[in-house]
Structure formats: C-alpha cells, structure tokens
Amino acid sequence: MLIFKQNTIMLIQQKEVRGKGKFYVVQEGRELAEMAYTMPSPDKMIIEHTEVNDELRGRNVGAQMVKQAVEYARSNNIKIIPLCPFAKSVFDRVPDIQDVLFQ
After folding, report:
1. How many CB atoms lie within 10 A of CB 57?
2. Which residues partner with 24 through β-bridges?
3. Beta-strand pair 44-52/30-41
4. CB-based contacts of 55: which residues, under 8 Å, 6+ apart?
C-alpha cells in the first residue's frame, strides 16, 4: 500500500518469519513505523503493538498499517485479534473493517 507524506510516496511493507511479522514503513533507510503481529495459527493474527516515529505522527500512518493488515486478512481468510490499544481503537472507529475481527 502506498501512502503520501508531503509529496513523498511511502510504501507499507510486510515481513513475516515463523509466525511473527510486521507491517512497516522505511524511508531513507530508516524504519519510521511498525505494527507487529503474531500468527498463533494460519487463520489468526494477533496485532501486538503499533509504533510511529514522531516524524510521521498525525499523518494517519498507523491507521493505514491497520487497514493493510485488514486487506491481508481478507485475502488470506484470517481473523484478527487486536491486542494493541491503538489497533483496537481503529477497529472500534471503523465499522467496515470489523468483518475480519475474531469473535
């Protein structure tokens, strides 16, 4: 997913190894945002925490990472458990992404 920061395109990337992963943003060789998750099973993702560097605060980067996780979950038939307070607040505010929540 691409997001824009003052005329600069940023790419939300994803990395997963052995059931642990993250969605993240790197700019000029520095990781400026991260949303970490674990996969306790192939059909469940637990979002553990979200961090956004002060340089990107107020630019909706954290919410965009949550939405990227939602797109990934929908594409892979995964349900999300948002233990991270920030991610949970995004799910609480945006009803159209709640279809991927683990019940």
Report:
1. 11
2. 13, 34
3. antiparallel
4. 32
Helices (H), the chain: 61-76, 85-93
What domains does the chain contain, in order, with CATH numbers? 2-100 (3.40.630.30)
Per-residue pLDDT of the chain (103 residues; tens, 9 = 90+): 545 444 456 799 999 999 999 999 998 889 999 999 999 999 999 999 999 999 998 889 999 999 999 999 999 999 999 999 999 999 999 999 999 999 8
Cα pseudo-dihedral 67, 52, 20, 84, rounded to 10: -70
Torsion of CA 80, 90, 59, 3, to 10 degrees: 40
